[in-house]
Design a protein that fits this description.
The structure is a homodimer. Chain A is about 40% helix and about 15% strand. Chain A has 14 helices and nine strands. A nine-stranded mixed sheet of chain A has the order 1-2-9-8-7-6-3-4-5, with helices on both faces. The longest helix of chain A has 15 residues. In chain A, about 65% of the residues are buried. The interface between A and B is medium-sized, with 31 and 31 residues. Strand 5 of chain A pairs antiparallel with strand 5 of chain B.
Chain lengths: ~375, ~375
């Protein structure tokens, strides 16, 4: 892995392009967008750690975006945590956005629990269990509406940072990637230190079988891939990128989920690829149990930037746990951090950010 | 009436401040926001002309914003028209926004028919018939969520232009104004040449009686005024202004409805008043059957700007009818026109705009 850094941002892949992308956004004012969605897939035991109990994961997307917009959650007490009590990465995102005075907007691809804050509705419904082979209704309409939103927002903001929150999202991403012929088996990420790869592959294979879809059969039909084994977040996120990236740079904030979005984007419009980068965290690119780069390189030559956050010396065990492989990324935490650093031209560092995160941790979790 | 103009914008009230406001926004990039809502009040026969039949008025807000975002309506054929076939002012708004490349966003305070385009949901419900005295649920929550949206959007856009679409809206505005002690009897506007003032007053008085509210009794309780005899558009619009106007100028686009919003805004936060102006059309300020200035001066010293549109020499009777008192304003038509002129520093004129409107009329109506 390369160790070249600008500010506290690691140029993790496609170094020169990554550096050029960072130059483009330096000092500029972004809009942060969090795309939320839900999938019944998240309730399969052992798959997702984005909630204290499987039932609570339904509240996680809503609670995450409430945290971003209000500074605290409204639909649940405290903040979303893993079964071990490790807090949501939205804590990082919120801290970064507040420190850098970056505005945010919520977009819903389709969620079961609606957030108690303003959100852009695209008419989508919550996603089903992908084992049925019928995962997402109206994927095309969600994508088209998101594209309209992306076009309009790109005419206001200097650039966009788009993140997501959908428990179970790495499994649905794996579904879309496999259906589109991108071999992501054993490469997708997990919010748990021990990545349940086999379970994820089993779930996806069950879905592909139910939909009568073989590996790679939908390489040129991304909407069908989403409909069969994806989730409603993916077409919403992809539509935003497709609508916006012709006019402004788009930092796609996340890990595995973002790779599935990228595959969809690429098959609609290769032209926008020159104006996007992936923004994630060091915990993702250092993860031995997954391989983001190995997925991305099968799709397109896109730079990967990684926020060099370091929680090893945090005062709080709940944050230190990030260094042991818990959570790692989500709710655009890495991308929001990179945007905060770029907007402040490096004045905001990993250290100042950790201080802010700890302050918020103390207020909300401790 | 003053006739001083800048570009084709009439400084209709508070000339010096109006000029200063125009200077502030000249050459800048706005975001246009259309706030939609619905009220059962619109179905009272003889009250609203914002639809071919009373039942069709329910589709008007959705169709209006579809026209803005898509260039054509989706939930109805053609475009919304009055019973006489005169087309929606959204035709003007859409033409102005497209000509000046101004992006737009839809915000819903609560609507019965949901638009088939992206819209910001504030959790509000469609409004009831104000004769029951129970017009709007959760007015406070709508306002608070809109305020959050306004704060975030004002951190992206250089300024905001906010318009509205709610059939029956002049009657609910009259309700809020009277409840708050602003004597708007005989002063509110109408989309018909013959303004049914007496019917509107009767409807509002029935509502006030049902809610046990006397004239002026809610001067300091705007949310109760909205809850009893208002509509869900008003708190959404007011919240956006309250959230945004501390940071950027806000052009409140409309006539009577905007005066009710202004009354609500003022009673929450007088400080923002210095950063707002009203943007409307010449047809509103020349209307002998209403008196916008007479309402506004009871509330605050806010400049009124009026787009000097002239349809008298249009090729189309449906547009000429605007000169005979049909429609007059709505969907932020006046404000969008002013914003287009200001953004282009006067390059876009009333004449070039009419050309564009006629092109769209031909495509969609004729």
């Amino acid at each position: 892995m390369t160790t070249k850094k600008i500010y506290d941002v690691i140029l993790a892949h496609e170094e020169a392009r990554g550096e050029a992308f960072l130059k483009k956004i330096e000092g500029r004012k972004p809009l942060f967008i969090c795309v939320i969605g839900s999938t019944e897939t998240a309730k399969i035991p052992g798959l997702s750690a984005a909630g204290k109990y499987p039932e609570l994961t339904e509240y996680t997307p809503a609670a995450d975006v409430e945290l971003l917009l209000l500074g605290s959650c409204k639909c649940i007490k405290g903040v979303p945590v893993t079964p071990e009590g490790i807090p949501t990465p939205a804590l990082i995102t919120m801290s970064a956005l507040r420190l850098a005075d970056i505005p945010s907007l919520v977009v819903s691809g389709g969620v079961k629990i609606k957030p108690l804050v303003p959100y852009l509705d695209l008419g989508g419904k919550p996603g089903g269990d992908i084992r049925t082979g019928k995962a997402t209704e109206d994927a095309e309409e969600i994508l088209l509406r998101a594209k309209i939103a992306g076009e309009n927002l790109s005419n206001v903001a200097e650039y966009l940072v788009v993140g997501e929150s959908i428990p179970g999202g790495t499994t649905t991403a794996l579904g879309v990637l496999l259906a589109m012929g991108i071999d992501a088996r054993g490469k997708v990420s997990s919010s748990m230190p021990k990545n349940p790869h086999e379970l994820k592959i089993k779930v996806v294979e069950e879905g592909l079988k139910a939909a009568k879809v073989e590996f790679g059969a939908l390489a040129f039909d991304p909407l069908k891939a989403v409909s069969c084994v994806g989730d409603p977040m993916i077409p919403a996120f992809a539509g935003l990128v497709l609508g916006a990236a012709h006019r402004v740079p788009v930092l796609m904030a996340g890990g595995t989920q973002v790779s599935a979005v990228l595959a969809v984007v690429k098959s609609f419009d290769r032209q926008v690829l020159g104006n996007v980068a992936i923004g994630t965290t060091r915990w993702i690119i250092e993860d031995k149990g997954a391989d983001l780069k190995g997925i991305i390189t099968q799709i397109a030559d896109i730079p990967i930037l990684a926020a060099d956050l370091d929680f090893s010396r945090s005062r709080f065990d709940g944050l230190k746990a990030y260094e042991r492989g818990f959570v790692k990324e989500g709710v655009g935490a890495g991308g929001a951090t990179i945007a905060a650093m770029a907007k402040s031209k490096g004045l905001i560092t990993a250290a100042t950010l950790l201080e802010e995160i700890e302050k918020n941790y103390e207020r909300l979790v401790a």
